[in-house]
Amino acid sequence: MQPLPMAGQPPAERADAARNRQRLIDAAHRIVAAKGAAGLALDEVAREAGVGVGTAYRRFGDLSGLAYTLMEGHEIRFQEAFLAGPPPLGPGAPPDARIRAFLHALLDLQRDQWELRLLATTTTAQGFGSGPYKTYHLHLVNLIGELGGSRDAAYTASVLLALLQPAVLDHQQRALGLDPDRVRIGLDVVLGALVLNR
């Protein structure tokens, strides 16, 4: 006997749909390993997985949806860390320390999944405002609000997140030749001036 779904949960996925989803994800991982994220195309992923192209489009919508799916595990661990993990990234540290830890951790996450995050944010109509952006923004708004003062927390959070967008980081690295340490130092300088009044 199958258990009934709990209230508020999405309906259970059919077994064949779950198998197809996993085949598509496995195929996408193989393509990324062989060609990099720039080599991803939903048609090719479907062929590699042995499923219909329509199935791939229904499952992910577009390349952005596929890229976010491939990043899901990293993203879940990151959100668990800043929402409930140990300080300074998680609760228990002063807000200024948590803001800095969050920005540094997000910078590391962007670098760890560089090509996928660039693909995810440049192939969707919503741009960098898609995916987990709203969660990041709300988290920073709350921390900036805890600092007090008259700054506009929503605007300030959006400015800080703009500095960490994959396209910006990609431009800094490829076009400007800025190494990761220089970007991190620059981020701290902006954070100090904009938020921490240093």
From TrEMBL:
Pfam families: TetR_N
Domain of life: Bacteria
DNA-binding region ranges: 41-60
S-adenosyl-L-methionine as UniProt keyword: no
Occurrences of domain HTH tetR-type (ranges): 18-78
A molecular-function term among this protein's GO annotations: DNA-binding transcription factor activity
Keyword Lyase on entry: no
Record protein name field: TetR family transcriptional regulator
